[in-house]
Amino acid sequence: MTSPVENSAAATAAQKPQAVPVNTGSLYEKRRKIQVREVSGRFNKWRWSMFFLTQALFYGLCWIDWNDRQAVLFHLVERKFYIFGMVLWPQDVIYLAVLLVLSAYALFLVTAIGGRLFCGYACPQTVYTEIFMWIERRIEGDRAARLKLDAQPLSLRTLRLRASKHLVWLLLAFWTSFTFVGYFTPVKELAASVTTLSLGPWEWFWVFFYAGFLYMQAGFLREQVCKHMCPYARFQGVMFDPDTLIIGYDPERGEPRGPRRKNVEAAAKKTGDCIDCSLCVQVCPTGIDIRNGLQYECIACAKCIDVCDEVMDKVGSPRGLIRYSTENAMAQHYGPREILAHLMRPRTLLYGVILTVIIAGAAWSLATRTPLKVDVLRDRGSLSREADDGRIENVFTLQIMNTDEQAHRFAISVDGLDGIDIVDERIVEVAGASARTLPLTVRVEAPPGKKGAQTIHFEVRAQNHEDIAVREKASFYLP
């Protein structure tokens, strides 16, 4: 029998709060390194064809000459954009705004119709990740060999393979960054500067910055960029609807999963067409299981379609267990014609109309724009002064920009006040794709009853091309 003291101590102990175990583990899941299995198939061939096309344009376009200059060059020092026969100046920034709007609506249209097709077939992150993984496979071997290499302790062979891989990665990264910078400074001048190590400070910075950026993004981060860094993955759900084409797994046909031999009917084993081989997971560059439904990590690369079709061929089942389809088509068993009909819905038609209008307007504006720009500035030193002949004179500075590739002779005239005239030279020659600053003295007899700022107009007209003319307003000050 316990004493009153012991009973009191036990009661006191019972009233004390019990210690709660503290979770000292990480709040974040540790990243699993994804070793992607190589796959072949029709969609993979299309993807690589797109990769070759985009990279041929990127690496080759900067080396093409046009009118004794680089065909495509966004010259930062000269503040001019050369795009084949077109020269854009800072005053043409409106076209940059149009290009951004055009890109946005094109992305909306493509996403509303085909989901993340851009991600799977043209996104630079996807393209260079695939190229880096191709280099990795050529050096370290297939998926099984790479998994075995990861599990092995460090050895001379491992160091040799890894060093070779990273060396090739770095060479590709620096060549890519050099090409990229070559679109902002003449690439041939850049190449000559590289051979003599005489690059400018900003060129050194951007070559190393983009090389390091590409090396990290495509070599190490890979799917982490698509899953956690890319904003497109986050807001794509706003542009999706049940009639958007996605890569989907057909659960009605595939479930329940279970292994079976070739040419054994699924019904005989009471299983679905999915044999649970997990190859669709092994080929996925973001490591998801497409059988769990649509996920934001899916970049629509269609590798799972290619590998699943190969498996279906081997087991004697029809292709299409994983396929391009829509949520409505999966649920309501639409055929190809019905899927196509639902793709042409009000949202996509509206995007298409807006896109067409913007393209047509931009094309018309570029085709009809005058290759001449004129800026008129007043002399800030004095508003007006009286000349020797008694007339009132104002001094202006005209900046004449010839955006054409050919040189032109321009005639300058002024009007707006009776008897107004230009004292200085009225004919000026401006070389192609260049500008010239010209000081002008304008005189007029002081009209009776007029004082202060009076509106006048300068007209600059090409002598050899009457259609090239610009009329600019200015103010003539009368005391």
UniProtKB/TrEMBL annotation:
Keywords: 4Fe-4S, Electron transport, Iron, Iron-sulfur, Membrane, Metal-binding, Transmembrane, Transmembrane helix, Transport. The chain crosses the membrane at residues 46-66, 93-113, 167-184, 204-221, 349-367. One of its GO terms (cellular component) is plasma membrane. The keyword GTP-binding does not apply. GO terms for molecular function: 4 iron, 4 sulfur cluster binding; metal ion binding. It comes from the Bacteria. Pfam families: Fer4_18, Fer4_5, FixG_C. InterPro entries: 4Fe4S_Fe-S-bd (IPR017896), 4Fe4S_Fe_S_CS (IPR017900), Cyt_c_oxidase_cbb3_FixG (IPR014116), Electron_Trans/Redox (IPR051684), FixG_C (IPR032879), Ig-like_fold (IPR013783). Residues 265-293 form the 4Fe-4S ferredoxin-type domain. The keyword Electron transport applies. This is Cytochrome c oxidase accessory protein FixG. It comes from Rhodocyclus tenuis (Rhodospirillum tenue).
